[in-house]
Queue: 3 jobs
Job 1
Amino acid sequence: MSEAFLFPGQGSQRVGMGRDVAAALPAARRVFEEADDVLGFALSRLCFEGPEETLQLTENTQPALLATSIALYRCLEERGRLPAMVAGHSLGEYSALVAAAALSLADALRLVRRRGQLMQEAVPVGVGAMAAVLGPAPEEVAEIAAEAANVTGGVCAVANLNAPGQTVIAGHREAVERAIELAARRGARRSVLLPVSAPFHCPLMAPAREGLEPMLESVELSDPRVPVFCNVDAAAVTTGAAARDALIRQIEGAVRWVESVRAMIGVGAGRFVEVGPGGVLAGLVKRIDRSAAVSSVGGLPDLEALTAEDSG
């Protein structure tokens, strides 16, 4: 049975993440030390101690989650636990590429720090919004988003296809709020605005893509040692060039998570291990395929439990 490692994106962060593994395991500690050195400030302290409002700033959240995920991954790697394939949700795709040895940790940290800054700068706070629409099929949500955009003259598009019956939309606040009204009229179980600072994965992120593309073009991206299932195509990339292209398009493109998980199952993934805080992706996998085996490694107890399972 092949194993896939999954890496979380924004929303999974919490103060205290990574602290226990960094205190106990040199492999994890080295990752946080490198992150502090590369970024020129104490990212590790922000992860371990907060304050929460500073950690929640997108430009900090993105490198903080990357560092924590890779610290946990390095500990799994050191214990001989290696995946047959990897994927990451949005920001997590950078972690997946580091795990697949396609992108260096230092380059990934610089990229996601800048990515966070550019995403925040792309749309003034309050102008954009995101909402989760629960119930309707993705095709119907896309129709609702298109109608809301047409009525308001703003942008509204599908941003994340997270699980059956859970689709996220993003765009101008007025258009997103109109889409929520339309979804309710069409019988959506529930629609809720998300507590995010910008409308990610929609055409409003074009300035962020334009800003990050030169930086992405300048870094070295090697061919990954295992397939990386990218968000924007829900398909495996096996070359550095394809991985770079997917990262560029991902900024404006929808996260096709349901299709990505099903594609991994289609090539033999029978077990999924979420590597990073939160456990969100493990939950989504179970909603996508109830028969899939899932584990979450968000800290030292999870790491020890998975290792004990191997030796048991």
Job 2
Amino acid sequence: MRLLYVVTEDWYFLLHRLPMALAAKSAGFDVHVATRLNDGADAIVRLGFTPHPIPFARASVSPLSSLKTIAALRSIERRLAPDIIHHVSLQTIVLGSIAALGLPGVRVNALTGLGDVFISNNPTARLLRRLGSPLIRFLLSRRGSVALVENPDDAQTLATLGIERGRIVHIAGSGVDVERLRPAPEPPGPLGIGFAGRLIERKGVRTVVEAHRLLRGRGSDARLLIAGTPDRDNPTATRQEDIAAWGREPGVTLLGHVTNIAELWARAAIAVLPSHGGEGVPMALLEAAACGRPMVATDVPGCREIVVPGKTGLLVPVNDAPALADAIETLARAPALRAQYGAAARELAVERFSADSVGRQVVDLYRSLGAGR
């Protein structure tokens, strides 16, 4: 069967959908990728997939821009006639489903977390929620469409919107390579606190920096390692001047984009992600868990799937730097507890979130949908 992934960015496909695509290829699917092609185009070809350039504009809500994307997708889908179309994220679900109206094929609509539209209270987000909810309900309820979610909270949200339970499939996370990412001993010297993720407001990097200041004020010599860069297509991207100022603070190291994330967890003993919400199951936490690191995160959907209080880490409220500092300090003072949580985190990553496990589940879904068709 011919499978078409529709993803906004090539880097996102390579980072978050590769386990699924590789499993599908191994199972005999002819895999194509429609996305905005940049630095990842060659990698997509080397992996044996066929790329198709699409003019996605994530930062734009322009009707003209959306129409261009819809037209390009419809042209590709007419030419390829894919058996299964796998839309990744809310924007591609909406634009891709409109493009596919009247065309054959099954659509897997993957919600990789509900994102800023569903968690933000700014006027634009509220307007998009009000206007978009009926459209999402219509598109996800069409014949041949299923919704794929990464955590049970998102499944409940879709049900609340009026999506039939039978159309909602829950597969935990997007798969982490537990063979490549393995536990390593804690590094010697001052304790390292690692943050990995896009530098946007929703990821909570400001809260991490504030918590680190509090810890330094208490006499801690903990080092904060920030891995990531601003996402310029996201309207809440962190300002470059703020990032530069953080890099000048005592004990803070800016790592920028890290190609091999294992290098971060070889330097950091604790993983933190004080996300504001809108997550699927955060890849940053999955990778930290695979590397055997204890975690501190916010008590929001997605994060609490991998950070189990008292087992793999600690949960704190959103936007609460003192609580985050207290949780980090609890782990900093207890090496045995860090080791216990880290081992349990690794075990959970292997048992529930591995690339092999997620890949098998997704291929089974594709096959069942193809057989049903």
Job 3
Amino acid sequence: MIIKELIAKQKHVYDLLEDKQSKDIFMGLFNYMITSEYSYIEDFVRKYVVGYNEMVATIKQKLKELESKKVVVYGVGFSGVNIYSALRDSLHCFCDTYSKKEVIAMPFGDIPVIKPDKLIANKNEYVVLVGTLFYYDEVCDYLRSNQVDMVDINAPELFDNLAELNSQYFDKELIQYADGEVFIDAGCNDFRTSELFLRKCGTVKKILAFEPDAEMYQVCVENSKHIKFATIHPMGLWCENTSLSFSRIGMDGYGSRINSSAIKDDNDTFTVEVCKLDDILAGSEATFIKMDIEGSELNALKGAKETINEFRPKLAISIYHKSDDIFEIPLYIHSIRADYKFYIRHYSGGRTETVLYAI
């Protein structure tokens, strides 16, 4: 994207946003995108994410009580970055199978990244803070089997799921419910979000949930069997009806995604069915669409264009999976209907869990 076009999109989206909080988060994401300077993320997290500062202070105090040992964070992914940004003064090093050169884009400053064999060989010197969300249980089992001391804190869970997590997709300052809601849950995983919607909403006419992972689909079916008006579709949402490559990530499927390029990766990869929401609804109404589908949101919105144009449902769309989603998603929705009002809210202690509301 050339500079002139980028600036034009930045100004357009900024002008569409309704309040200061939305504008501050958007500009933080924009500045991070063009500079890779993580302090822009830290600034709006400290300002707007409820409970973040208190949580960091509590963890630092607990780590301070372990002064006799060096604190190691196991994992250099997104959760590791979140932990580093908050606790850098308390950390000795990272541990991962990746080398320092392979994670050069991550903002770890001068903190080294050691290999697991070095950690095990010198385990009496270290205490480990597990810093991976998707592989938390696996890493804990590995460390226990090698008799490595661990800090009794599930840091990824704390950083990625802070206070007010129950507001994600359903921000109480923004969302108002109507009688007879028709809720679309794209990327329902274990049906937890739909269950949360049921607790918040008054009367619900219908829930249509979409989960392409066959294993998690069965979990959704089991968890929704008591809800007669819920239908679970064993497919993902997309801009056309087709089959695509899909990678399953983590033991619980969080982070699993469609690979539209059909490129294989190191994860469990298989083929799934995807569809247009417009075709599933076939002209019937939707009142609320939630999408958190690991980078497929824009394509799924394209497959819901007729529904959005006709019924103007409330939209809660994740915009953190791809860097240009902060531009392309609001601008695409605005191109369908110019009467939406746009807000951005953030629900984690790092760069994940940012939601665009169009209401």
